[in-house]
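Recall the central idea of this unit: under ordinary conditions, the amino acid sequence of a chain determines the structure it adopts. In this exercise we apply that idea directly, starting from the sequence alone.
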Amino acid sequence: MTEASQAVFKAIAFFDIFAHPLTAWEVKRFAFGKSLSLFQVRHCLAELIELGKISQHDGFYYLVGRFEIVRIRHQRHALSIAKYKIARRVAGWIAGLPYVRGVAVVNTLAFDSARADSDIDLLILVKTGRLWAARLIVTLVVQLLGLRRHGIKIANRACLSFYLDEKAIDLTKIKLSSDPYLAYWMSTIVPLYGRPVFQKMHSQNEWQKNLVPGTWLSRPNFLRRVRLNKFSQGNKKMAEFLSGKWLEVLAKEIQMSKIIRNKKSVAGAPDSRVVISDHMLKFHESDRRVEYAQAWQNMIADN
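Accordingly, the structure predicted from this sequence is:
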C-alpha cells in the first residue's frame, strides 16, 4: 500500500469508529498526514478496493464488511437536521450574551453523525478575562430556556462543557501524544457564530494542520449561521460595560464552590479530561480519546 493510500485508509478507519462512511471529497479533506488532490484520492480508493481493504456503495467508502454503516449514516443525517435547528436556537441566545465571542457545534453532530439519544455539544469562545462570568450567564440562560443538558435529560439538550477564552485557543496543552480524535475534532468544528475567532483558533493549532493537512474550517449555510442585529449588539456592549471585574470574581467564587462540593468530579486527576483555569473550562468526565486512539491504532496496525 502506498503512503497516499495509507493516508486515505487511516481517515476511513477513524470515521468507521463512529459508523460514518466517507465520500471521496470527505476523504480528500480528512486524509491523515498527507494533503492529496481529488484525483489522487480516487486513485487510492480504487487501489484500496482492489486490495480488499474497503468497499463502496452509494458514493460512500467504508471498511470491508461494514456495509450497514451506509444506512446508519443516512439515518443520522436526517436526525442531525433536527438537532442543528436546536443548536442554532441555542446559539442564537448565547451569541447575544455578554463576553461571548463564538459558538460552534463540535463532536459527532459536527459531521452529521449524532445518534437520536445524543446531546448537542457546543464549544463556546469568550472574551479573555471573563471566562467565569460568561459561563455563569450562559448556563443560567440556557437552563431557563429548558435547553441545557443535566441529569437524565440528555437527548437534544445543549452540552455546555467546553469554554475557552482567546488566550487558550491553542490546544497543544491538552493534546495527547497520540490524539487522532482531537485532530479530527478540530477539523470538523462548525462555527454558528463568531467565525473569525474560530479561524484564529485554526491558525494557532499548527499540530492539527500537520495531522490533517487537507482540512478547512467549515462554513455552515446561512440557515445555520447566527448574526446579531444592531440592537442586540448594542445591548451586549452595554451589558459588558456595566458588568466589570466584580462579576468575574463573584462568578468564579460561586462556580468553584460548586465544583469543590462535587465529590464525583475528576477535576484533580492528572490528565486533561477536566481542565479548570481562568482561560479554559473543560468538563469532559468521560473523555474517550485514549480509547479512540487505541481502537484506531488496532485498525491500521496491519496496513
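The radius of gyration is 20 Å.
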